[in-house]
Write a structure and sequence with these properties.
This protein has about 475 residues and is mostly helical. The chain has two domains: about 400 residues, Up-down Bundle (Growth Hormone, Chain: A), CATH 1.20.1250.20; about 55 residues, no CATH class. It has 17 helices and no strands.
């Protein structure tokens, strides 16, 4: 079965198997992300690390995955999507085992980098595979499947993550990926016994790839330096300078290259570029919540990891219902207003959550999780479909890898910026110790303020999408 060429019919059994395997790999990655966020306070205590250092468990993963998505997306044109997908699934599974056996914080971070490489291989072409399978009238629903499957994985992940962390130890939140990954590899080999078409000679833009990776890595190092010291230093300045110079060189190289890693002309298409910029704002806001919520529930509300896991169940339960509905509405009504409605609903929910967090009103917080994740579902499927449809089908691989890179960049910036803001606000309140030991009221106030910032990012994203509708639709 070859999924590298033109659109595949979605009506046959082989196509259903392709969809199942790809979605299963996405689900595995979703489980990993959720359980790591829930266990982060416990891991921080285990290694006696503050949030500025322990957040690298998430940040190192995200920045590695983000910097490699475009590269692997381009390599798939030569290796074939099937070969790259299988390699990514094997690497992700093996590195998950290594994470579970890590003996130090920095060893864990190193294995998370390996895990992110495998994830980048998978995600760089997963959307392209699913989009090629779908018929034109079913594309929105297919994108909705991604949100629904991610949510379905999330139903088990918070409970397992909380219980495993509390009873067996945080190591098992990584080890749980191993049986899932092995099963995925077996199914992949069982139903895809053939080979990819013969690969062409690889003509990669290696200078462009290197400068892009340098730019992304050093901008995150710059943000991490600020989050740990909250003061300008020569090392922070050097990181920022290297990042800016690398970004400039990358743009020059891509403009001049006959075979660029990234065809910059696609960003002249406002139907593609504006939704992607809105996506950065959206995922920055969402991952501010992702990083801070476990600290709030455990350190302010005094909840155990297992109880935090139960609260986090709200998100997947809501999304498993709302995501396919959102995709169906997009296909049937073709409503351009759905992404705007989704991002605005998310922003309003974040404002209300900020006030509820300050008041330490747990019932209100739990209740507000429902509209928050309805908003996420309304934005995710339609915006994903808009982005994939903005470019011709033969460029689906490029659209998939660029969109995945943009999404992960937003996640990474959200984690880094929220860590900077949390440290800055706590220091402004006169507290400089570990986050876990902060006075609950002070910590609640800091997190409340950051949620308002996240809401403002959603507002910016909504404006960008409205501009896109007026210019393109």
């Amino acid at each position: 079965m070859n999924v590298t060429g033109s659109r595949i019919s979605g009506s046959g059994s082989p196509e259903a198997i392709i969809r199942f395997v790809v979605l299963a790999a996405i689900a595995m990655a979703a489980i990993d992300g959720i359980v790591v966020a829930i266990a982060l306070p416990t891991i921080s205590r285990s290694f006696a690390a503050d949030v500025a250092h322990s957040q690298w468990i998430i940040t190192a993963y995200l920045i590695t995955e983000t910097s490699l998505l475009l590269i692997f997306g381009r390599l798939s044109e030569y290796t074939g999507k099937k070969t790259l997908f299988l390699a990514g699934l094997i690497l992700f599974t093996a590195s998950s085992l290594a994470c579970g056996l890590a003996a130090s914080l920095w060893e864990l971070i190193a294995y998370r980098v390996c895990q992110a490489c495998g994830s980048a291989m998978i995600f760089s072409i997963s959307w392209a595979i699913l989009f090629e399978i779908a018929t034109p009238d079913d594309q929105g629903r297919t994108m909705g499947y991604i949100g629904a499957v991610t949510a379905a994985a999330g139903i088990a992940a918070p409970i397992l993550g909380g219980l495993l962390t509390e009873t067996l130890g945080w190591e098992y939140i990584f080890l749980i990926n191993v049986p899932i990954g092995i099963l995925g590899v077996i199914l992949f080999l069982r139903y895809f016994p053939g080979k990819d078409q013969e690969g062409r000679e690889i003509v990669m833009d290696w200078p462009g790839s290197a400068t892009m990776v340098l730019s992304l890595i050093f901008i995150i190092l710059f943000l991490a330096e600020l989050s740990s010291s909250l003061s300008w230093s020569w090392s922070a300045g050097a990181c920022l300078l290297i990042s800016l110079i690398s970004a400039l060189v990358f743009l020059i190289l891509e403009h001049r290259s006959a075979n660029p890693l990234l065809d910059l002309s696609i960003f002249k298409n406002f139907g593609f570029s504006l939704p992607n910029i809105a996506t950065i704002c959206f995922y920055m806001a969402l991952f501010m919540v992702n990083l801070l919520a476990p600290f709030y529930f455990e350190e302010v509300m005094g909840m155990t990891p297992s109880r935090v896991g139960m609260v986090f169940l709200i998100a997947p339960v809501v999304m498993i219902i709302a995501s396919p509905v959102s995709g169906w509405l997009y296909d049937k009504k073709f409503s351009r207003a759905l992404p705007v409605a989704g991002i605005m609903l998310t922003g309003i929910s974040l404002v209300l959550l900020g006030y509820a967090a300050l008041a330490q009103d747990l019932p209100a917080i739990i209740l507000l999780f429902v509209p928050l994740f309805v908003g996420v579902a309304l934005f995710h499927s339609p915006s994903s479909t808009d982005i994939m449809r903005a470019l011709p089908l033969e460029r689906a691989g490029l659209a998939s890898s660029v969109s995945a890179t943009i999404r992960n960049l937003g996640m990474t910036l959200g984690v880094c910026v929220s860590a900077i803001l949390l440290t800055l606000i706590l220091e402004g309140a006169g507290y400089t110790g570990p986050v876990q030991d902060a006075i609950p009221g002070v910590l609640a106030g800091a997190i409340s303020s950051i949620l308002i910032v996240a809401a403002a990012l959603c507002g910016a994203g909504a404006i960008l999408y409205i501009v896109k509708i007026r210019l393109v639709d």
